[in-house]
Amino acid sequence: MQYNAKVNVNRLKARYSFILAFFFICFSVLCVRLVYLQVFRYDEYRLKSKDNIQSKTPLKAERGIIYDRNMVPLAVNVTNWRVFISPRDVRSDAEAELIAKGMSDILGVDYETVLKGAKNKTIRDRTVKKKATEDEKNKVLEYIVEKGLSHAVHTEATSSRYYPYGSLAAHLIGFMGSDNGLLGVEAYYDAYLKGEDGYYITSKNASGESLENSYDAYVKATDGCSVILTIDINIQKMLEAELKATYIDSKADNRVAGVVTDPQTGAVLAMATYPTFDLNSPYTLDEESMRELNALGLKTGTSEYNKAWSDALYKMWNNKAVSTLYEPGSTFKIVTTSVALETGVSRVSEGFHCGGSLKIEGYGSPIRCHKRQGHGSLNFAQGLQNSCNPVMMTLAARIGNQRFMDYFIKFGYTGKTGIDLPGEALGIYHEREGFNTVELAVYSFGQTFKTTAIQQITAVSAVANGGSLLEPYVVSRIIDARGVIRYSKTRTEKDRVISEDVCATISEILEGGVSGDGGAKNAAVDGYKIAAKTGTSQVRDIRDENGNSYLYVGSCVAYAPSDCPKIAVIIIVDQPKSHIYYGSAVAAPYVGSFLKGALAYIGIEPEYKSENAVTVKVEDYCGMIVNDAKKSAEKAGIEVEIVGKGETVARQVPSKNTEINLKFGKVILYTEETDAETVKIPNMVGRDASEAIKILTDLGLNIRINGVTDYGKGACAKVVAQSHAGEEAEKGSDVEITLRYLDGQE
Question: What is the secondary structure of 258-276 as a DSSP string?
Fold first, then answer.
């Protein structure tokens, strides 16, 4: 028994020792773990503990404003109200239902969605409506006070982007996504515009409620910088009006685009694509895009429909002036002739002969001129003014492949312009190794290579400004919230490409083509020296069933005044469907119309007045002695017709303040009340201008001329539009006719 007791004691001691050792090991492991957590992972768990007793609230930075060059706001911020629920504070399902009912009635949101969110206790903040109006916010506040829901439903002021002018300069300004700019200046300068968000941290009590006036940290938001564009809103409006007009008239299938610049600095004064879209509703397709989408006959909601809708949206957003390539056609002849004079391979007085085509070694058939019968004998200047392809090919052959390519590079066609907008496309062209005799010939008149509108106007502006290739830009300054200039941009010369003397000569030739019988005479503006060149090129990417190109791009580039340019413009009409598709018809008239308004706006006074365009405002002759009224009118140069035998003027046609053309108009003064003599106004559309004017004036009607005023150059201009055709009108009434040359080709 003693032996057994001793054995049992020893076993018991061993068991105790094991248990003690086990607990010692566990305690040691626990101590090591505690040391590890409290020392080595201290920062991590300190932050986790702070998350449980603190709340971090973001402070949104105010996005910078975008202004035009005259500080007119083009993109601003407006206050909206976010309505949100704190589901953790919703006390019951009945209260959740009350919230869902009120929010759906006031805000027009889905009842079930709000109810589901209000019952979800795992989240602290559930947005009901992101952009509620002031009126909706006030109704929500009234409702939550009335129902005792202030602990669970809240509102906060938020800021959203607003564009005061809607679609104006849409492709250039761009628009916002949820947080960042997605297009145009909004995207390119997003880092400057968005600023830096701040935040504040508040402590919470055991119930998770914030303790008022207790901030553990506060970081102030830094508002974004304001951006000042080079764009002039009034010039932008003028450009967009002309783009819309040519789009409607030409029925362009692939939109139209235009750019206006200051050729002396490279600053972009206007840029647009039409059809455009509303910046305040950028995901809504324009009418034309919707028609094209619906014409596909796809079922709404299908993957095919969704893809087509997405493609249409991106096409609508595409800045055609910067991101779309086209063949410049005859507008490139400005470059070819400039290089020819610069390299000395020709002179202005040199004579050429155009037989309608020219045989180029390595090409099967002769390459034709746009004038199939040929221009006959002409000099260098006439070759450019009349857009003769054989003259250009002859000049290019003299320049030579390598030297021509040297200047092609110098004028910037092998690189991007560097404009400060996203998505600039790089042109398509032959490398030196593949630039042979045939390529040289067709490049000379602007075909088989592709460029962009911004690239083309930049190259032409180098000739306009005396030889400097400049970098175009759309932002002149960026200013932070304190008024400090963070960025500025001025004239940046990339290269000297041509001499001043050559530039002056080419400008003079181009002006002669507008004021004389050249292909760009539809771009003429009465009283101003306009240098312009038109172009028509084929769309080689789309062919008919026989493999032939059948679509065209018509364009016109111009600058004025030609001897001291202050403004340059290019308009491109992509795939016009009108029966006349030449740039001289679909682009040049609208360039001229634009320059007429723009030159007056920037303060350039006309140098002369065509006798066909001299107008004067009619005075108020009513009540005057007949002889006095007649003398007053004739002193102003107005022809007068007296009707009746009274001594004083009882009535007059046209009425006072009406603009009357001195060459074609007259005032009829009635000295007694008589029945008005009326005539039926004939439709003159399609007739020669001189014939139409004679018919209308013989009927005793007053004529106002739109379009070209010097209508007798070469083939007479035609009437392309007229007011009041077919109507009965009193003699002396006003009839407006629009004149345009339809003989120009290039």
Answer: EEEE-TTT-BEEEEEEES-
